[in-house]
Amino acid sequence: MEQTIRISPVLNSRVSEVDFDNIPFGREFTDHMFVSDYRDGKWGDFRIEPYGNISISPANMALHYGQAIFEGMKASINEEGVPLLFRPEKHAGRLNKSAVRLGMPEFPEDVFVKALHELLKLDSAWIPTSEGSALYIRPFMFATDEHIGVRPSFSYKMMILALPVGPYYPKPVRILVAQKYVRAVKGGVGFVKAAGNYAATLMPMKIAKSMGFDQILWMSSDFKYVEEAGTMNVFFQIGDKIVTPSTEDGTILEGITRDSFIQILRGKGIEVETRKVTIEELIEAHNSGILKDVFGAGTAAVVATVSEIKYRDILMTLPDPSNRPISQMLKKELNGIRNGSIADKFDWVQPVMLEKVV
Question: What predicted TM-score, i.e. pTM, was given to this entire model?
Answer without folding.
Answer: 0.95
